[in-house]
Amino acid sequence: MKVSTMRAIDKWVGIPVCFIISPFRWISDTLRSAKRRKPNLDCSLFIELSEMGSAIIVDPAMRKLQREGKGEIYFAIFKKNYKSLEILQTVPESHVFKMNADNFWTLLIDIFRFMAWCRKKKISTVIDLELFSRFTALLSFFSGARSRIGFTNFHDEGLYRGNLVNQPVRYNPHVHIAVNFVSLVNKALGLFDKPYSIVPVFPNELQLAKAIVSDEARANVKNKIRQLYPQWNNETIVLLNANASDMLPQRRWPQENFAEVGKQLLNQYQNIIIIATGAPAEKEYVQQVVNSINNKRCFNSSGFFSFDELVPLYSVSACMLTNDSGPAHFASVTSLKVFVLFGPETPHLYLPLGGNAEPFYLGLPCSPCVSAANHRKTTCLPRPCITGIPPSMVLERMYSFLSQREAAKNVTIV
Questions:
Q1: Which CATH superfamily is domain 215-410 in?
Q2: Cα 104 from chain centroid (whole Å)
């Protein structure tokens, strides 16, 4: 199902349904004394359907709930996004509900499957990670969980999704989304009782676990690189991720800019190769960048590496230049240096965790133009926030990083 279709359904169907269901929520919660009881964390369900990167960002919050809540954690996500949740293996696959959103009818069927699954798993608390989605608010209610924790607009105007969340937390648009996620968990742990998250979130609570990559997985990836480029002799690998998801295509830095960076890097360094990455559906788009670079040391790997091979690929590479998209967050579970291009979004809220990500961001007066308030939708076509980032700015930082890395490799220890 197209993103625009899902947004339209969420608005035009979700709002009236949330309004109709809200009185029944009040009756149900009153009979169960739901608001007066501390959440039962024996079986807690996180819902984050549409954002693959958020499945990584929420990991520190999930681990905190595991550690301090002492219960089982579960997760609901769109089937096509499940692989992102598998990277850190915090939630076992048997505890994940994969929802099929290929079309309206498969989604409708899976709503009923979801209701049955929640009751089979005895879900006691739901933590809705989505930013004011009516659909996930309804899923939270239909789960049958007594405690339902999620973001609320509180005194802010708009963003109506009924009163289906009975343990609300005011969403703060001025702090990183990871802080907001931990605040939801703090609410579940009973650390504050009002919608305002008054409990500090310290940096150590946002530490991201690192993926475990076996020597076998690295060797397999290296063999596949040689299939693409038989002349490879362990030269430094630079990754280019030129595409971004259809959820927000305005995040894409122009193809010609990626091509210019690739050309200059290959001219400057004779001991590097460039691998252009992407999903199978992005192969043609990525190939246009590779054709513009027009160098045998740059090649298109779109669809060649499986999702499971991405983390091993990141672990054997030096750095990656990417749009603000899922791969930036997938790479954050490794030591890979990631340069992230931000435009309609802001690194203040969505910079990948892990400490290895560096943003390029102009911070125009109109930026960021997407937020929870507009369900991350923009119609800006010129996109000066992203198209205005010059290749020279990017090259300066990448030159510095690669040169320092090369110098460190050549240091002789006496």
A1: Glycogen Phosphorylase B; (3.40.50.2000)
A2: 24
